[in-house]
Amino acid sequence: MDQKYSDKATQKMIKYAAEENLTTVWDRFEAMQPQCGFGKLGLCCRHCSMGPCRIDPFGDGPQTGVCGADADTITARHLTRMIAGGAAAHSDHGRGVVHTLQLAAEDMGSAYQIKDEKKLKAVAEIYGIKTENRKAKDIASDLVSEVKKEFGQQDGTIRFVTTAPEVRKQLWEKLGITPRSIDREVVETLHRTTMGVDAEYRHIIKQGMRTALADGWGGSMVATELQDVLFGVPNPLKSSANFGVMDEDKVNILVHGHEPALSDIIAEISLSEEMQKKAVDAGSKGVNVAGICCTANEILMRHGIPIAGSFLQQELAVMTGVADIMIVDIQCVMPGLKAVSDCFHTKLVTTSSKAKIPGVHHVEFHEKDAEKTAREIIEMGIENYSNRKAEDVFLPSEKEPLIAGFTAESVYDFLGGTYRATYRPLNNAIIEGRLRGAAGVIGCSNPNVDYEKGHIQMVKELLKNDVLVVVTGCNAISCAKHGLLQPESAFKYAGKGLQEICRAVGIPPVLHMGSCVDNSRILRVLSNIVAEGGLGNDICDLPAAGAAPEWMSEKAVAIGFYFVASGVYTMIGKPLPIMGSENLYNYLTDEIEQETGGKWAFEEDPIEAAHKMIRHIDKKRKNLKLKPLVYEQPFPVED
Ligand code: SF4
Ligand code: MSK
Question: What does the pLDDT average to over 291-300?
Fold first, then answer.
């Protein structure tokens, strides 16, 4: 796989891995070729033991499975199960946060505190909980009990849905896709896609959308909002990203996965004089914490803890030889870490009751013992420092400064008014044509494409055309490593209109909005823009688009579907595994727009993908009869 588009530090590490005969995710990907064509097209089914079945894509062999399910049914069932997997992952994360908030509300001696009472009250009010003249812990207790009930409720709808634009809520009702509860939608999806139940592809996808909405406006939003209550609403801050944030002279603790509950405490305790002294006593110059994947994004957003790398860099981070301990919680953790950490001194530790790796040391984390576990882990890292071998150290020095920590709230402060909280200046910038529109570029990286080519080329092309970009997940990490999260990058890459906005308010042209669950922040931003007025009545009216150019996880499928169901044009690189069904392809990339106002698009060339997004943005500007762009620039109409 071509690595010329990835950051320099990664290129060095991949070369080093090859020289040292160390296996990486890219090697395993190569060894897996050719990958199963039926699987890629979505044409295989093993939902019962009359199968596995496969449909012949060339029309010569079987066109149905043993039960009679055709390509449309099989692809739709499989895809919808992917949505359920992704929604379950985000939502179970959210459930964990509810339990942590419960501890903060009930146990005053807990390591967790309610750090943001303003946010607590705002969320409680959405849930219809009285906040006036009440103590924070009482409000939090009521909120916990309401949210807990909501996960499994049988009637009613998810409360955060009430924050969507009015027209959108009515549309969901009309389509019958308003999510009722988080667990119920996941369970119903699994039921409807099991052998002999739902066979009508559009009907299956509708349930898929309801499940995805239960994620975006439910589980993910619960995770984001309650994490803000517990750990504080992020504010823009400075930090840096890439392997160079690890310090050869210090004990390096890497935190990887998705949940901030333990890592947040590790980040705090590692700074204590006591821990720094222990590290010095062990012969180092102190303790240094850095993150991988979305755990990184979480503690970056709130503490400015630097990012060591994204999803595809997890094994390479161990190969630097300076990672004294890597703790992993849930999601996007490669079991391949075991083999690579066996080749180095790195202590690999699993910490979630939900996730173990064979042969890997397990320190189970329970919130009530948060400080004790955090200490144990930091001390384990300090102790392991002496096992570091100088001959194994290969640490690229590259790191890029960045600004992160943007939220739906901070858009008020930065792009909003000076004297009152408003999105008006942001809306006006779009209405007057200084900004063409906005795009959310998010998601994973995947060894099936050139690492970071999709993310970086797409984002730069959008900037050049005056599109403000918001990023989350591993795309945010890639943008950080390529210097796009710095205000100066506006003058290198942005069109004149976007440059003016960035100069006026001192922001980068690419706004880091957090982790994967924080895509729910983007839903809130879109709703706030609609509420501010002047850009239509619904999310689908906005000159906006979304993309996940290098997607990999089921979570990306769930995210994509909650954006499509919310009215967003959603672009991905490699197609969804549905290309074996022409009907499903036509539905998702075209006909669905008549129903939700959003649709899917697949385009592997990142520049052309950006152009398609820009054309969509321009179409929306035209529909809204907005003024021409202040700095009109030549733009390829058709490539
Ligand atoms: Fe085959 Fe139908 Fe069973 Fe799927 S559900 S494995 S298509 S028989
Ligand atoms: S970590 S889901 S690889 S973005 Fe959220 Fe990155 Fe994708 Fe995992």
Answer: 97
